[in-house]
Design a protein that fits this description.
By secondary structure, the chain is α+β, with helices and mostly antiparallel strands. It has helices at residues 5-13, 55-59, 62-70, 104-110, 118-137, 190-194, 201-216, 226-237, 242-247, 273-280, 311-324, 335-339, 342-345; strands spanning 18-26, 30-37, 43-49, 83-89, 92-98, 140-141, 150-152, 162-164, 171-172, 255-259, 266-270. Helix 5 (118-137) packs antiparallel against helix 7 and helix 7 (201-216) packs antiparallel against helix 11 (311-324).
């Protein structure tokens, strides 16, 4: 990956304190380059926007507003990437962060998508939940939690430490707009798909999907459109409750009302793939790597070395997933309860016999 000279050259000329050492990646927002701060000698990650903007636009940038709010926190304790500074040069936003190692996505890809050892999974879950807790306490929803937005501090060191990155899509809890589409599809909560007003509970849903992806090595609900993702959710977890369907502004894109069995009342029914294709001229596909009818089936998958992980530990992990992946956000576990769950505190004696 290389950055066009027309973007990179004028930006670096305006930032003489930074010496470029190499390209790190590219996203929808812009490019990330590794630089050396010639004053502090620190190696940093510098994010350069693709699009140009005015100084007034920069002041309204959601990412910068969030980063300024997060400055009151200790980034290491909060498991959030450390933000150093920003510049507005040549009409482009340039943000300087600490340099981390690699994303969890790249780490899993490097491992051939083998299921992650439970000891590593616990550390990653604790760190992401800690980051979610920190965001909640400053009134921010990340809205874009996925494997690409969680980075390892150093993949060679144990225990693994991770930090949450990329606040470009973050929103203030009090400024959520009903019907706004956020989150990558495999991590998108049902209330977002249906067009309901959402809360920080959508980040917990994403954490549940991330946990499952790392635990089993593949996405639970893959999809290239909302219909495919919702279809996976329903097959795995059941249909959203009537109240959610009644209030969703996008419900009729995926459901229709028809008479129920032995009743004259009309009930919400999920559209068949044929109905959806006829209406949208898009043929839905089932993109699941493995078909599961419930999260409990994960407990019996031959994923982990039984000698290094007890069946009780695996069951406890799945039970926590079930609490994070409640379809109704009102029933979803809070981030505080996630951090206190027996799976993460290693106190399985608190689990009931039915859960284990």
């Amino acid at each position: 990956m290389s950055i066009p000279d027309r973007i990179l050259t004028p930006v670096l000329e305006e930032l003489p304190d930074y010496k470029m050492m190499g390209c790190m990646g590219e996203g929808s927002f812009g490019y990330v380059v590794q630089c050396k701060n010639l004053k502090t000698k620190e190696i940093v990650a510098v994010k350069i926007s693709k699009d140009t903007s005015s100084p007034d636009d920069v002041k309204e940038s959601g990412e910068l507003i969030t980063l300024q709010k997060l400055r009151r926190l200790d980034p290491d304790r909060a498991c959030l990437i450390k933000y150093h500074d920003y510049h507005h040069v040549c009409g482009r936003v340039v943000i300087v962060f600490e340099k981390l190692d690699i994303t969890i996505y790249d780490y899993m890809k490097k491992r051939g998508w083998a299921p992650m050892p439970i000891c590593d999974l616990k550390n990653i879950m604790k760190d992401i939940a800690t980051a979610c807790k920190a965001l909640k306490e400053v009134g921010v929803i990340h809205t874009d939690m996925k494997l690409d937005n969680v980075m390892l501090v150093d993949q060679r060191k144990r225990p693994l430490r991770t930090k949450l990155i990329d606040f470009g899509e973050s929103v203030k809890t009090k400024q959520v707009c009903t019907g706004t589409i956020v989150q990558a599809l495999p991590y998108r909560a049902p209330e977002v798909i249906l067009g309901l007003r959402y809360t920080e509970a959508i980040d917990i849903w994403s954490l549940g999907m991330i946990t499952a992806h790392l635990f089993i090595g593949f996405a639970l609900c893959p999809g290239t459109n909302e219909y495919e993702t919702m279809r996976c959710i329903i097959k795995l977890l059941g249909k959203p409750p009537k109240k959610m369907l009644d209030e969703g502004i996008y419900t009729r894109l995926y459901f229709y009302k028809c008479p129920g069995v032995n009743t004259s009342k009309k009930i919400w029914t999920f559209k068949t793939p044929e109905q959806y294709e006829k209406e949208n001229r898009v043929k839905p596909k089932d993109r699941r790597k493995r078909i599961l009818s419930s999260l409990d089936e994960i407990k019996s998958l031959p994923l982990h070395n039984k000698r290094s992980h007890s069946s009780e530990e695996i069951s406890a992990c799945v039970e926590l997933m079930k609490k994070m992946l409640q379809i109704d956000p009102k029933n979803r576990i809070s981030v505080y309860a996630v951090l206190l769950h027996p799976f993460l505190t290693d106190d399985l004696s608190l689990m009931s016999e039915s859960e284990l």
